[in-house]
Amino acid sequence: MKTKLLTSDELAEAAKLLSGSSLVGIPTETVYGLGANGLNPVAVGAIFEAKGRPQDNPLILHIPEVSWLARYCQEIPETAYRLAERFWPGPLTMILKCKERTPEELEELRSGPVCSYSHFGPRVIPDEVTAGLDTVGMRCPAHPLCRAVIQAAGVPIAAPSGNTSGKPSPTTAAHMLADMDGKIPAILDGGPCAVGVESTIVDLTCTPPRLLRPGGVTLEQLREVLGEVEVDPAVTRQMEAGEKPRAPGMKYRHYAPKAPVIVVKGDPAQAAAYIRSHVSHTRWDGVICFEEFVPLFAEEERPVLSLGPAADTAEQARRVFDALRTMDGTDVKRIWAQCPDDSGIGFAVSNRLDKAAGFQIVEV
Ligand code: AMP
Ligand code: MG
């Protein structure tokens, strides 16, 4: 199969593929997603195959407007609507109770006509999306092309990030093509992603609400709306053997380039000095550092990539996956990476780098 790159003029073609059972790469403001009709178990199953994704890692369901929430969720707390009012459309995923079918609805479905992708499960969302959980992750993305294609398809779109499982997420259509060429019919090109890291995930089915993944909406912003928010331990440390993560996806290796990564945290100048004194003087050691320190590492042949200015965490979020991917295009055997502190969107950047490094972290 040849993977087509579609432009915004070809949105109708992308919507047609999506409303059937085909996979389409979709632009969002966070990262590119691998989208499928979220009501079609066959289409959703193909996502796992194309990505090599473990079956027990659930997907996020993308909707074009908040009014669709009640179609797929039940017992929606009032806090969900407050969050939606403030942050949707935008980079926030809420974990909510999935809508159950009544016995009468199930009976009616089972005795009615069978369409090509009918699913007769006890919940309105197929288990392929939720990995059999009784909860579902819901997001209304801000990218105009993304919302338009979901509206045109007329169905909620299940989508994980559009990378091969375990690899850095794609923030351009070209990145996604590199991973998915030949595996899916099309990618809708919506330009580079404005946020650059995946959505914030907050679980609203527990008290207090719990942050499962830091992202474009910051923890500070969530607390302004929700008051107390707990941070799941898996966000800041490696899960231990036998430990059961609250979110299934948390136990898997993530965002990792081919070469091992060592993250160096602390005062930016001190962290740069630490890397300077430990990096080898060969092309086998790559460096990802803040803009200010690039000259410190400029040496013939060594790959050095800027994460953006030390104070500009939004720019760092836009660049982090591109930097990790670019290192994959070199023959480095080790990557040293500077990292912002955990405030604002810096928390999302440091979480992705921590995971890419398998929590191999040096604090200076
Ligand atoms: P990605 O595959 O990169 O889009 O990530 C989707 C994330 O959402 C994964 O980490 C999933 O584990 C998480 N997720 C999706 N649905 C749920 C859910 N019902 N409960 C907890 N986490 C979820
Ligand atoms: Mg992902």
Task: Describe the 3D structure.
The chain has helices at residues 11-19, 41-51, 69-72, 78-87, 103-111, 127-130, 144-153, 173-180, 219-226, 233-236, 268-278, 294-297, 313-328, 346-356; strands spanning 4-6, 24-26, 33-37, 60-62, 73-74, 92-98, 135-139, 157-159, 186-188, 200-203, 210-213, 230-231, 261-265, 285-289, 304-306, 334-338, 361-363. It has 364 residues and is of the alpha/beta class. It folds into 2 domains: 4-235, DHBP synthase (Alpha-Beta Complex); 261-363, Threonylcarbamoyl-AMP synthase, C-terminal domain (Rossmann fold), CATH 3.40.50. The strands form 2 sheets. Strands 1, 2, 3, 4, 5, 6, 7, 8, 9, 10, 11 and 12 form a 12-stranded mixed β-sheet that branches. It binds adenosine monophosphate and magnesium ion. Residues 57-60, 95, 130, 133, 135-137, 160-161, 198, 201, 212, 247-249 line the site of adenosine monophosphate.
Per-chain topology:
Elements: E1 4-6, H1 11-19, E2 24-26, E3 33-37, H2 41-51, E4 60-62, H3 69-72, E5 73-74, H4 78-87, E6 92-98, H5 103-111, H6 127-130, E7 135-139, H7 144-153, E8 157-159, H8 173-180, E9 186-188, E10 200-203, E11 210-213, H9 219-226, E12 230-231, H10 233-236, E13 261-265, H11 268-278, E14 285-289, H12 294-297, E15 304-306, H13 313-328, E16 334-338, H14 346-356, E17 361-363
Parallel strand pairs: 1-9, 2-9, 4-7, 6-10, 11-12, 13-16, 13-17, 14-15, 14-16
Antiparallel strand pairs: 2-3, 3-8, 4-8, 5-6, 6-7, 10-11
Helix pairs in contact: 1-7, 13-14
The site of magnesium ion has 3 residues, from loops.
